[in-house]
């Protein structure tokens, strides 16, 4: 099971795209800038080069980070072929030290120059990072745009399908015109030096800082997942245009639920008035205002955890780091750790914490029986908690807790997303124990899942899959967490009451694989026994889906991103100690029940005669919670 493609660097949070004015044919006048070591460089220094590639980069832009290693390799490849490379950083917010670190981390040997006051960016007409230009022998622009099409806003391919920069270089070296001389540069706005309007009624200190503190700073601060900080005026002003664009397009803050259905305590949407303040501030040149108007900065726990207090138990995924490669795709990783618990424990709060936030996109943690190393196909049995970008650890409502059985093993399922430099990770989970006497309701994560119908045909752009899960007793619904992979398009939950009435609980019309949000109801919602939670998912396996790794493939259920899943996780609370509804009325078919192919590896230890079926004796030998799921499955099939 996966949660996102390689751009877990929050590309959707910080990059944008737009057509820039054409600069083809424009002759670039020589300029003189210093590199991060203080050495002066001029365009004329490359007078003997047949071509000069000028790359505008930003040290914190996720796309610029991903393309840094590529640019470094291309420069070395063409070093002896008459092609010179220059990097330009025109961001007002990027210090010299950050440029030096960028060059070191991405192993870039060509000069990267600091463009104070954006004079060189203005001459080129550069608007975003990364954007590359190829200058001919007369230093006229013959190519402008992206490096290639491997990375973009919210999508990633295993490899580029259009190597635009390389194509341009080869054609020019061969004395030909560039076939595709302009492409769209996707990336972050260059943080230009601007002249703020002194008369502006909207300022950072009075109006924008409170918005950032409320919606952004929890992630965009030191040590958190946000790719850049928004804790000061200088930082925010450098990202002003990008902030305005992603807010106007509802890409930030990340929230994908249709407001017509449900009220959620973690709703991140900005109001129209707040969006207008951001727009007016940027239009006015991003004025700072009176620092006396600055609000008190938000406080965060100093324990290193979001939990209400220091955790009672911390379990690492393993005792040594996992090495994450600089580029490419990393398959889902599974790590197994003993909980060390000698008795059952009730958990009132739990937090999964990545060791290296720069490359950990999501983590799921499961508790399974001693000796087990398998997660059931629906993904919910033993599900404890998750980490995804922007998810905040919150205690369960008063009197509610999850139970971890004694001697449980913990399974960490981790999706790593390389960010252009090698990294290491040791992730962990922390638990706050509850007083068993105060626990009145047990919280369980269950799911409506359907592996059987995941057979998405090539090119299908709206393939529908449904699943339902009946509530065996009166339950309080707490949280939803829809899960699909990169072909996921939309996801909806509804309650079907015993009398047949339906109620839409959550509608996610534009599912985003990058943001696996947990939608927490503002108030628990009660439903009677017999209520069905019905989930409907749609998938896009066509070429229109830029995330799609292969529109010609028939897509089936599987863990990896190029496979698919349809799981509607949801949390319920039921009275503590109350047994599940009896299943004596379910008749096990003579000869046993067939094990679906997707589950055969999981049930192999219980399938004693290896006939890919479970007979009555084998079902009786299952762990109680697994047996309950199997009996529910048989009942649905009947």
Model description:
The structure is a single chain. It contains twelve helices and 34 strands. The chain has 638 residues and is an alpha+beta fold. It folds into five domains: 11-189, Glutaredoxin, CATH 3.40.30.10; 204-293, no CATH class; 301-439, Jelly Rolls (Sandwich); 440-577, Sandwich (Jelly Rolls); 599-637, no CATH class. The longest helix is centred in the N-terminal third of the chain and has 16 residues, at 62-77. The radius of gyration is 27 Å and the shape is globular. The two termini are 29 Å apart. Residues 1-19, 376-380 and 580-584 have low confidence and may be disordered.
Features:
single chain; 638 residues; alpha+beta; Glutaredoxin; Jelly Rolls; 5 domains; 8-stranded mixed β-sheet; 7-stranded mixed β-sheet; 12 helices; disordered N terminus
Number of strands: 34
The tally of structural domains comes to 5
Indicate the CATH topology of the largest domain: Glutaredoxin
Cross-sheet strand order for the largest sheet: 13-22-16-19-23-32-26-29
Instruction: Give the CA-CA distance, first to last residue.
Output: 29 Å
Helix content: 10-25%
The portion of residues forming beta strands comes to 25-35%
**So what's the overall shape?**
globular
Low-pLDDT runs of 5+ residues are 1-19, 376-380, 580-584
Number of helices: 12
CATH superfamily of the largest domain: Glutaredoxin
* Name given to the CATH architecture of the largest domain: 3-Layer(aba) Sandwich
CATH top level of the largest domain? Answer: Alpha Beta
Structural class: alpha+beta
Radius of gyration: 27 Å
Oligomer: single chain
């Amino acid at each position: 099971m996966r949660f996102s493609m390689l751009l877990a660097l929050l590309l959707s949070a910080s990059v944008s795209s737009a057509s820039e004015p054409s600069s083809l044919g424009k002759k670039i006048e020589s300029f003189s800038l210093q590199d991060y070591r203080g050495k002066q460089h001029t365009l004329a220094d490359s007078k003997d080069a047949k071509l000069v590639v000028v790359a505008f980069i930003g040290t914190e832009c996720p796309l610029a980070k991903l393309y840094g290693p590529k640019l470094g390799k291309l420069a070395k490849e063409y070093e002896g072929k008459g092609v010179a490379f220059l990097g330009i950083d025109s961001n007002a917010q990027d210090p010299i030290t950050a440029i030096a670190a960028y060059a070191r981390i991405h192993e870039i040997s060509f000069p990267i120059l600091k463009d104070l006051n954006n004079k060189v960016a203005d001459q080129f007409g550069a608007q975003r990072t990364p954007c590359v230009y190829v200058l001919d022998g007369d230093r006229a622009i013959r190519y402008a745009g992206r490096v290639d099409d491997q990375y973009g806003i919210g999508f990633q391919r295993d490899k580029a399908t259009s190597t635009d920069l390389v194509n341009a270089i080869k054609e020019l070296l061969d004395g030909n015109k560039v076939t595709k001389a302009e492409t769209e540069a996707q990336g972050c706005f260059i943080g230009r030096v601007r002249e703020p309007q002194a008369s502006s009624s909207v300022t950072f200190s009075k109006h924008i800082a409170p918005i950032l503190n409320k919606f952004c700073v929890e992630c965009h601060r030191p040590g958190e997942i946000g790719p850049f900080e928004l804790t000061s005026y200088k930082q925010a002003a450098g990202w002003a245009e990008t902030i305005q664009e992603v807010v106007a397009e509802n890409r930030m803050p990340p929230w994908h639920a249709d407001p017509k259905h449900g009220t959620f305590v973690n709703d991140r949407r900005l109001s129209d008035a707040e969006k207008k303040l951001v727009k007016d501030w940027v239009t006015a040149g991003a004025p700072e205002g009176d620092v006396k108007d600055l609000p008190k900065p938000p406080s965060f726990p100093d324990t290193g955890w979001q939990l209400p207090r220091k955790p009672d138990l911390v379990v690492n995924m393993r005792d040594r780091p996992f090495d994450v490669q600089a580029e490419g795709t990393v398959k889902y990783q599974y790590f197994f750790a003993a909980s060390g618990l000698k008795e059952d424990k009730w958990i009132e709060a739990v937090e999964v914490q990545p060791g290296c936030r720069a490359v950990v996109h999501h983590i799921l943690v499961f508790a399974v029986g001693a000796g087990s190393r398998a997660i059931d196909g629906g993904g919910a049995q033993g599900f404890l908690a998750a980490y995804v970008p922007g998810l905040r650890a919150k205690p369960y409502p008063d009197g509610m807790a999850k139970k971890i059985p004694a001697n449980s093993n913990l399974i960490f399922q981790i999706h790593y997303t390389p960010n252009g430099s090698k990294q290491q990770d040791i992730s962990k989970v922390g638990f706050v124990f509850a007083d068993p006497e105060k626990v009145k309701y047990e919280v369980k994560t269950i799911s409506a899942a359907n592996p059987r119908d995941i057979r998405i045909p090539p090119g299908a752009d709206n393939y529908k899959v449904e699943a339902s899960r009946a509530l065996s007793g009166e339950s309080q619904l707490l949280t939803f967490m829809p899960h699909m992979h990169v072909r996921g398009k939309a996801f909806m939950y509804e309650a079907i009451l015993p009398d047949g009435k339906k109620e839409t609980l959550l509608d996610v019309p534009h599912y985003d694989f990058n943001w696996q949000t947990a939608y927490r109801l503002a108030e628990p919602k009660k439903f009677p026994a017999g209520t069905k939670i019905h989930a409907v998912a749609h998938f896009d396996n066509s070429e229109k889906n830029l995330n799609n790794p292969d529109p010609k493939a028939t897509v089936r259920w599987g863990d990896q991103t190029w496979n698919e899943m349809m799981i509607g996780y949801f949390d319920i609370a039921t009275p503590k100690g109350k047994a599940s509804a009896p299943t004596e009325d379910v008749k096990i078919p003579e000869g046993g029940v067939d094990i679906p192919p997707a589950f055969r590896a999981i049930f192999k230890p219980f399938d004693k005669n290896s006939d890919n079926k479970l007979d009555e004796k084998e079902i009786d030998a299952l762990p109680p919670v697994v047996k309950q799921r199997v009996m529910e499955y048989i009942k649905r099939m009947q």
